[in-house]
Structures are given as C-alpha cells and as structure tokens.
Design a protein that fits this description.
Length: about 280
C-alpha cells in the first residue's frame, strides 16, 4: 500500500482532508484516529504533527506526505516538494521597531526571534548576514519588547498584530508558503501509485479552478465566441436543430466566468450556463 502522511491538526488538517475526500480517498471520522486504511485505493494514511511529516517522509518509512512548504524547509529534512496544493498560503517577513532596519542587509550583528529557526538561518546565510537566531514557540511579537531580540521573523497576513505591537515589516518577503506534497529527496517519481495520487490531487485543483460553460450561438459569431472560450484543448461544437445555430461547451477559469458570460451575451450567444466540475483528468 501507498503510505501517506497527513496533518493531524492545525490550519493544514481540515483543507488537506477535504481535498483527499474530493480526490476519492477515505478519511478518518474521528480526530483521535492516528491511522486508517483505504483498501479500495490501496492507501494507508498516517495522521501526524505537520512539523514532523517531512522528517517521517525523509526517513523512508512513509512514501509521501502533505505539509507546509515552510515546515519542509524549516525541518531541514531530506525531502522535496513535488506538488503545490494552493491552500494554507502564508508569507514570512522580518519586522522590527521603526528606524531599526530597512531590510535584511541591515541585520548584521542583531538577534532575530522566530518560530522557524531553520528558514531564518538559511535566509540570513544565503544573504551573507551574520546575525543570531533565537527560537521561540509562539508570540514572537513580544520578543522585542522584552529585549530578547531586535528583530522578529514571522507569518504576516494583514500586519495588524505587528502594528498593534508597534512594529513594521521590513525588506522583501523571506518566503511564500502553502501546503505541498513532499517525498524523500531523490526518490523515484515514476512509481505508479504515487503518480495516480498526484493525478487525483491535480484533478481536484483543476476542478476547483475551472467551470464548464455551455452556450448557443449563431454560426457567423462562432469564431468570436471560441476566442472567448478556447477551452484547454479546443471547445466542443455541435450543430443545433435550428439551422445556423451551434452549441458550444468549454472549460473556463471560474474567476473569469461572469465576465465571459457578459462578453458572450454581447456577441449574441444565448442559453449560457455554467456548471461546477467535481473531478477531472487532463
């Protein structure tokens, strides 16, 4: 069986389970379950701390896992990202009191407090900055006020917490993170079960990104209509019973669907419908 690590809690857990369910895999019914077997799909799921998943995968005990890009890099594990999943996105930034520094180039000789020591130490080293890194498990905003560090490095969403602490973001982002599928570095990526798993998840990602659009239009307007809805390969075009009319079907980006419907209507298309896509293979 394919052995897969899944986050057992936190911001990664719910969306990961939802995606796996959409991909056709059984998921646990109770949060206390640490392992389940999906015999129909020949998969065994292990529910682990997100921070530990890259380490388990790098050991070779598990085939692949779902974790955060930030946790993968911070772990220093012998594992690599093979598929971004598009949820649990976050941005890591430096922050400090106004006037202390403008960017990473000003941090030499300072102390940086963070919950992600591996990420920060690597970023400082990559930029040739000699600074100390202090590991804290949480509430890093208070590190400056209490004199533990001059700078912090943390996840920044709106920046409200930082402003409330009298801090400002400095420099370029350290990194952008999201949920990813990981495997042991150098592992054979052509293993059939792994490829099937990845195809299913890719199918979910596409299904979430696109909708199916159907409409009728006059033959003389077909080229203009197809230019608006080119589809992934090419739209399906079928003649209608009424002469001079055709039915068109194509996948379109969900976020652009309303605009496309307006443009189609303006060129004379009618009976314009969109439907959700629940699964696909490209």
């Amino acid at each position: 069986m394919l052995r897969i690590a899944v986050p057992n809690k936190g911001s990664l857990s719910g969306p990961a389970a939802e995606m796996l369910h959409e991909a056709g895999y059984q998921q646990r019914r109770e949060s206390k379950e640490l392992r389940i077997v999906d015999p129909e799909n020949e998969v065994e799921f292990f529910y682990l701390r997100p921070r530990d998943i890259a380490i388990y995968v790098s050991s070779g005990r598990l085939d692949i896992g779902i974790t955060g890009r930030d946790l993968l890099i911070d772990s220093g594990a012998n594992a690599e990202e093979i598929l971004p999943l598009g949820f649990a996105r976050s941005t890591f930034r430096y922050a400090t009191k106004p006037g202390t520094a403008k960017g990473v180039e000003d941090l030499s000789g300072m102390t940086v407090a963070t919950s992600y020591e591996g990420i920060v130490a690597k970023h400082l080293a990559d930029n040739g900055i000699d600074a100390s890194v202090v590991h804290l498990d949480g509430a890093v905003e208070t590190a400056i006020e209490l004199g533990v560090a001059e700078v912090i490095a943390d996840v920044v969403e709106t920046g409200t917490s930082l402003r409330n602490a009298g801090l400002e973001v400095i420099g370029e982002p350290i990194m952008k993170s999201e949920a990813v599928v990981v495997r042991r570095t150098g592992e054979n990526g052509e293993e059939p079960k792994v490829q099937q798993f990845l195809r299913r998840l890719q199918g979910v990602l596409v299904a979430r990104t696109y909708v199916m659009m159907d409409y009728d239009c006059r033959v003389e307007q077909l080229e203009k209509a197809v230019a608006l809805t080119p589809g992934l390969e090419s739209p399906t075009v079928s003649p209608l019973h009424n002469e001079g009319w055709v039915a068109v079907r194509a996948m379109v980006p969900a976020k652009e669907a309303q605009r496309i419907m307006d443009d189609l209507y303006d060129i004379g298309a009618r009976a314009i419908l969109t439907t959700a896509i629940h699964a696909c293979r490209l």
